[in-house]
Amino acid sequence: MTRRVSIFGATGSIGQNTIDLIDRDPDGFEVVALTGGGNIAQLAADARRLNAQVAVTAHEDRLPELRDALAGSGVEAAAGEGALIEAAERPADWIMSAIVGAAGLPPGLAALKHGTTLALANKESLVTAGPLLMRTAAKHGATILPVDSEHSGVFQALVGENIADVERILITASGGAFRDWPLDKLADATPEQAATHPNWVMGQRITIDSATMFNKALELIETKEFFDVLPSQIEVLVHPESLIHALVGFRDGALMAHLGPPDMRHAIGYALHWPARGDVPVERLDLARIAQLTFRPPSEARWPALRLAREVMETGGLAGAAFNAAKEKALDAFIEKRIRFTAMAEIVDTVLTRLSSDPGLSSAQIDLDNVRQMDQLARVRAAEAIRENT
Ligand code: NAD
Ligand code: MG
Description:
The chain is an alpha/beta fold. 46% of the residues lie in helices and 15% in strands. The protein folds into three domains: 144 residues, NAD(P)-binding Rossmann-like Domain (Rossmann fold, 3-Layer(aba) Sandwich), CATH 3.40.50.720; 128 residues, no CATH class; 75 residues, RNA polymerase sigma factor, region 2, helix turn helix motif (Rna Polymerase Sigma Factor, Chain: A). The strands form two sheets. It has a seven-stranded parallel β-sheet, sandwiched between helices. The protein starts with a strand and ends with a helix. The model has no long low-confidence stretch (mean pLDDT 97). The site of magnesium ion (MG) has 4 residues, from helix 7.
């Protein structure tokens, strides 16, 4: 049976891995929409090869270029935020949400409102608006499938289980680029150094977020929102080999672990074929050759982002939206070399502290308008904190 699929963030790391799987089974899928940002050549080439209905660039000013690149192909060209929503509303059986950052939320919500199955790589949507996303999916009978490797691992370990029997969820972290650096050197780490990952090949932003552990901080919140467990039930475990992605501990003491090579096609493929399993061309682990797996507790001094995530989960409400927005601004400033590596967590901490006097932070209704307002406010506060820091 042919399935209609759309890929949001098709030109990115997750998007390209998704396309790799679809390319291997051209008769299995009919591509509805592909979306991207500034990489028009990639977007147009994929849309032509996969014979998509529509290709959308997020940048309105790049529309003429996209039109030219698609001329004669029969693929429609569109641009801007409205076009992204329109593309998300087109009938599809499965949509990959792999835009990076808070920008992934509106198209994801639009897809859920049409009852579409949403493969969610865009963890920021759960962090900024988890209850809204889950509520929308329930209301419209839509399914959300986690694509983050840890959450896909937990999801798989929970097949046939009752969430009430879960005692704890452990998500693993490689520790990123600076896992073994002396602490006093961290302040001098450059964006180039932070953008190299020991095990995973990913987009620049998430790779730097792995070095600060802001990625794991987002994933703690993502776990709470998606699986509806208490913050105290979720642990982070540093596991330098990145072969165990997550573990679920049950009331009888059993621990179910999800293992696989660090290749996102595993989690993407699971979501693509769910509820069945399909062939996925990832390396098969040779555990006898690997011989040993190691673990250590996460250091608070090295990764203050983890403490911040715990505070955000405690506050609830719109704190996740504020946290993510402040993090995105701080990350921009670090990439632009305006602030130091260690200043990212300081800035997010400052923003959360300053916003904590706003009663709306914990108690406001979580709807798209409030999430957007808090996102904007946190970006303004982060810009102030960045100016004070430079
Ligand atoms: P990436 O930077 O490689 O790609 C991002 C995609 O989003 C690109 O197609 C880009 O054009 C598009 N985009 C960027 N800004 C946009 C905007 N404002 N509006 C519309 N489109 C925009 O990122 P990635 O590494 O593929 O990550 C995508 C998402 O998946 C992120 O939420 C990330 O946290 C999550 N994720 C990624 C990995 C990984 O291995 N790369 C693993 C787990 C989760
Ligand atoms: Mg992950």
